[in-house]
Amino acid sequence: MTVDTPITVQGLYFDGHSSRSREAELTLHGQVLSVQCEGIHFELPVRSVHIEAGIGAMRRVFKFPGGQRFESDDHTAVTQLEQAIGRNRGLNFVNTLEARWPLVVGCLLGLLLASVAFWQWGLPLAARAAASVTPRAMLAALDSQTLALLDRQLLEPSQLPAITRQRLSAAFSPLAREIDADTRYQLVFRSGEALGANAFALPNGTIVLTDDLVRLARNDREIIGVLAHEVGHVIERHGARSIYQSAGLLLFVSVLTGDVAAASTVAGALSLSLVQNGYSRGMEREADDVAARYLRRKYGTTAPLRDMLSRLERAHQDVKVPDLLSTHPGVDERLRRLEDADRQPQNARP
Ligand SMILES: [Zn+2]
Questions:
Q1: Which of 122, 208, 240, 304 is the most exposed place for a label (fewest CB within 10 A)?
Q2: 7-99 — its CATH code?
Q3: 28 CA from centroid of ligand 1 (Å)
Q4: Which residues surround ligand 1, an ion (CB under 5 A)?
Q5: How far apart are CA 274 and CA 147, in angstroms?
Q6: Is the CB of residue 281 less than 8 Å from the CB of residue 238?
Q7: Ligand 1 centroid to 233 CA: how many Å?
Q8: How many Cα atoms within 13 Å fall on the side-chain side of residue 49?
């Protein structure tokens, strides 16, 4: 849009050679801009002048093709001039927003809520979908890489007598077959002070049992209870889901910070951190539910797992133990849930 009334902007002129500034006046007549200051007067087509978009209260800058510049604090006049020549409309929207800070705060809050909602519900749903279609070969690779990493960093060969390991493996086989015939489970025995009495499942069905846990158990049923819980993690694909959820967060953070390399470099250590940090509250419940159904079918009670959890808690006290004793949900909450399962009529749950 062109206006016939000249628009005048007061400001400072810099000749582009020295840092000296002079009081100057810029005038727009139609599509021609004239610059007037002490000893200087020239005119040029306004389209050849670059007007930097306004940022907050910062001084507005006009750049001329010859390297000269004109700066002005008269935001109203500059905006009027821009409107007359149809310049910086979208960019100055930022300024409009700044002037309406409640709207900006509202937008930011909306964005924050959307992020929280995505993190809370969207990401787990996406992770679940991705985990369910992850090929077995990929999961198998994760298992072998993670176990190799754990063997280098945290675990030692098992000291248990071979006969004990054989007995437990023999007891585990029917459990795995009954709960999840589609997965080829592998029960491995390790010792490791850092992990104490513990057991954890890797995404493709490798279940690691520590010597301390075997020693802490009063009978094999308690170990079966723990193994049924771990099989629950495998059936529900908690390993892959957790990795996708963490990868999603990393991706999210790396997009926000522009640090894409971080996402790829940390990805390799994800399954290890899973072992160290345990699963989410919801995942622990799901695994306990799988164990409860199996234990009730097999022994008519969830007592073996409850007894083991209680003893693990006493044995570890202040030590943070992942998975079996992850801080959330607390052991008390899990025991209550298992007791509730015992009160349900048999086969009430599918
Ligand atoms: Zn668990």
A1: 122
A2: 2.30.29.30
A3: 73
A4: 284, 287, 323
A5: 12
A6: no
A7: 7
A8: 28
What's the length of the chain? 350
Distance 116 CA to ligand 1 centre (A): 25
**Separation of CA 323 and ligand 1 centre (Å):** 4
- pLDDT tens-place string over residues 230-276: 999 999 988 878 877 776 656 555 555 655 455 334 444 555 566 65
Domain ranges, ordered by start, for the chain: 7-99, 100-133, 135-343
Q: 201-220: per-residue pLDDT in tens?
A: 888 899 999 999 999 999 99
pLDDT at 97: 66
Mean of pLDDT values over 41-66: 87
Q: How far is the CA of 259 from the centre of ligand 1 (A)?
A: 32
Q: Which residue pairs, CB below 8 angstroms and at least 24 apart, start in 247-251?
A: 248/123, 248/126, 248/127, 249/119, 249/123
Comparing 314 with 13, which gets the higher pLDDT? 13
Q: Grade residue 326 by pLDDT with cuts at 50, 70 and 90.
A: low
More confident residue, 62 or 320: 62
324 Cα–ligand 1 center, Å:
5
The structure tokens listed for 296 are 């009730």
Of 132, 153, 141, 126, residue with least CA distance to 272: 153
Tell me how far the alpha carbon of residue 322 lies from the centroid of ligand 1, in angstroms.
8
Owner of token pair 């589609």: 182
CA of 313 to the centre of ligand 1 (A): 14
Contact 171, 184 (CB under 8 A): no
Side by side, which strands form the sheet with 206-210? 156-157, 186-191, 206-210, 199-201
Q: Among 277, 171, 271, 152, which residue's Cα sits nearest to residue 214?
A: 171
Higher pLDDT, 157 or 271: 157
